[in-house]
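tool_call: predict_structure(chain=1)
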Amino acid sequence: MDEKALLNEIAPAAEKLLARHMGVAKEWFPHEFIPYSRGRDFVSGEQWVAQDADFGDVGNEMNKAVRTSLFVNLLTEDNLPYYTRDISSLFGNDSAFGEWGRNWTAEEGRHSIVIRDYLTVTRAVDPVALERARMQQVRGGQVPTPSSLFEALAYLTMQELATRIAHRNTGKMMKDEIGTAIMSRVGNDENLHYLFYRDLTTAALEADPSSMVIGIEQAVRTFSMPGIGITDFDHMAREIARAGIYDLAIHHDQILEPVVIRHWKISEIEGLSAEAEQARVALIDRIERTGRVGKRLARERVDA
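tool_result:
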């Protein structure tokens, strides 16, 4: 089945999933989360230092890995125009797919607003470094680019869930209750986006199991957290992993195992082509190895 045929086949599922999403998604307002009373004017040329931060009653200290995670999370959200472009290219602008893409963009847009306003008002990060990184990130326009619609469905599912996990874990490590509430609120949106793509992928697996298994294997094999184009991203990702915000063990235990193995029931799919069967074997083997390596790396960090 080609990509256009797959879209036609899963269009009814997309309509139902869009209606479900619109029925449960809650309206919220970024400005109501921001502690504006903590803010003060910035002086041109003033050098930021960590001690400038104001997290209310808990003082001005913030774990360096949490700062790094907030920095990366916001820059990822700032790249929204390019994700919108690619989703529109993959799914088109018509029918439920187009409506979903536009609504997703509107909801995602709130995330960069609320995180940026929080970081600026509280002076949690260097605003000059943040703005320079944003300019570089958006000018570069780099985002992960799945090679097919089949791979994209699996990638989007994993990426939305990974983002939810990273946001929520970042929030849990923040001492400031307002910051925690913001990351939880953003994570709730990401969870609903994840559920849309997870269940749309389920429908695609029923329509064309062979192409989808091949696509899932490609997505798992090449998956990386959004962050391409961010200067020194690999170092930041390692720092985030060491803090336990998002690492290989989490990727295995909270994404690959529950979604790919248990929800999509990849081991139970019947009638696969020879190529798809090879992809399934490679996929299951990769997930098992990821689990072993993730556990080993987690143990080494604890022992270090």
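agent: The chain has eleven helices and no strands. Proceeding to next step.
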